[in-house]
Amino acid sequence: MTKMRSAVLILTLALAGCGIGRVPAPPTVFDLGLDASPVPALPAREPIALVFQAVPALSDTSVIWRVGDSTAPKAYATYRWASSPMELVRQRLADRLSRQGPVLNERVSLQTPQLQVFLSQFEQVFAADGQSSEGRILLQAVLVDGRNVLGQKRIALRVPAPTQDAAGGVAALRQASNDAADELAQWLAATLKPSSRTGG
């Protein structure tokens, strides 16, 4: 327990980037980058409506980190997201899912399947010794058609960070977001009937 507390203290001081007596520099801003990585080859599908929500902590632009299973999340002092994680992940999901068919902000009719996604974790998690970390993302998805629940999917991914700093955490979370979107697209392909339309 003492070692864990020491590690938390060291990480807090190192990652907070305190600058006592100095004028703070503008924060470094990150996003998830261009969506240029390959996506799974999946059949075309009919339009879906995407409803996206997240826990309150993911509704601002803080870059969150914690040590192990600690219940005390921290935020980097000099690093921010360009938009809230809620908006960044929603946009990444919409971009990737649109490869198979239209993604709408709302239902056109009750016959339009609705994909309800809830983001409950999006953060960098350090090992107790601070020597490694990973980006973690946790999504819960429910697919509704009319008044019927067609299925639900829980996606929990952990991607190792290449470096033990904010940039490394962002890189891991970017990959985790892409992987989560691909897993969601594959689940939709297996759950929904393929589109009857042909051509582009």
TrEMBL record:
Concerning InterPro entries, the annotation shows:
ABC_trans_aux
Reading the lineage from the top rank, the first entry is Bacteria
Which UniProt key words apply to this protein?
Answer: Lipoprotein
Keyword Lipoprotein listed? The answer is yes
Where do the ABC-type transport auxiliary lipoprotein component domain residues begin and end? 56-185
The record's listing under Pfam families reads: ABC_trans_aux
User: Where are the bilayer-spanning segments?
Assistant: none
Protein name listed in UniProt: ABC-type transport auxiliary lipoprotein family protein
